Amino acid sequence: MCMQRQRYSVLTSFLEVPCVSSSFDSSLVRRSNILECQSVLRNCLPARCMSSTSIELKTNNDVVRFSFGKPLDKTGSSTKGKKMAKRAEVSKKAKLNELRFYRLKAKKKMNSPNPEVRIRYKLEKAKRKEAWLIEKLMKFEVAKAPADIHDPEILTEEEKHYLKRTGEKKKNYVPVGRRGVFGGVVLNMHLHWKKHETVKVICKPCKPGQVQEYAQELARLSKGIVIDIKCNNTVIFYRGKNYVQPKVMSPTDTLSKNKALEKYKYEQSLEHTSQFIEKLGKELEEYHKHLARFKKVNENATQDSLINT
Q1: How many CA atoms within 13 Å lie on the side-chain side of 37?
Q2: Residue 121 and residue 22: Cα distance in Å, rounded?
Q3: Does the model's pTM come out above 0.70?
């Protein structure tokens, strides 16, 4: 009760403002009154009672009045009257109609009597798919880690021959399948090198010339030495004389097993799509040649008919 009386007394003493005749002085008094009133209210009222509304003190006709304005933003402007522009919502029926329109358009092109229209439609569709697949494959590209200082060991011909024979005789091997080179292959190589000096890496299925790429990549990732490449699908690796098993056996700049499989699927799809595009391009060229031949035959026939007449 004492606190409330003190606050009331402060406010009443403050609100007793003398009446001023001139307009200029009255405006100054109003501004000073507003500022002082706000400071008094801040000191008197607790924080939870305060709000962001603007309070104005009016002294018109010798009467003091408070006016509570609109709530202010962070910038100081009133929020009332501002309406966010709502995005026009498309109904489900409109979406279905749009899809139906595109389907009918594609169906007309596919069933067109003109073979050029059909071929061009397929070609455009295949090119769009090719661009989409290239964009997908870009996501699977991993930045290569900075190469560590690695001193490759120099082996004599006798040592190479001995390691080659031992590698051929031993049965331990690491398969490289359709996923290609990923972190698990390098991990398996290091696990084999715990007990064996050499390890065979068998690549199946493997395209011609792909074994050399695999050998270079695995030599970079595992820091092993390529001893021999045989049968276009087998590589023999030697761990080295001063081999120390690394703490992280699966390199960070390689793909995981699942991602490697996804990448393989996209690569296969891209390969087939590019072959299909080449095939369609040849068909289009043949069609244009056929049209040119047909026009020549018609021109010759018309000329012969004119000569005969």
Answers
A1: 21
A2: 84
A3: no
Tokens of 80: 């009332």
Q: Is residue 176 classed as helix, strand or coil in its secondary structure?
A: strand
φ, ψ (nearest 5 deg) of residue 178: -70, -20
DSSP class per residue in 215-271: HHHHHHHH--EEEEEETTTEEEEE--TT----S--S-TTS--HHHHHHHHHHHHHHH
Query: In 3D, which of 251, 19, 282, 4 has the Cα closest to residue 148?
Result: 251
Q: Each residue of 82-114: pLDDT tens digit?
A: 444 445 567 888 888 888 888 888 888 888 889
Residue from 299, 218, 212, 300 nearest 254 by CA:
218
Burial class (CB in 10 A: 0-12, 13-18, 19+), 15: middle
Q: How far is CA 38 from CA 16, 48, 62, 75, in A?
A: 16, 15, 21, 18
Closest CA to 266 of 177, 207, 179: 179
Q: Which residue, chain included where needed, has tokens 């009446």?
A: 19
Q: In the numeric block, which tokens belong to residue 280?
A: 């369609």
Mean pLDDT of 194-205: 92
Domain spans, the chain: 2-71, 116-142+264-280, 157-254
SS3 303: helix
Q: What is the CATH number of domain 157-254?
A: 3.30.110.60
Chain CA centroid to CA 61, Å: 68
Distance (Å, rounded) from C-alpha 211 to C-alpha 207?
A: 8
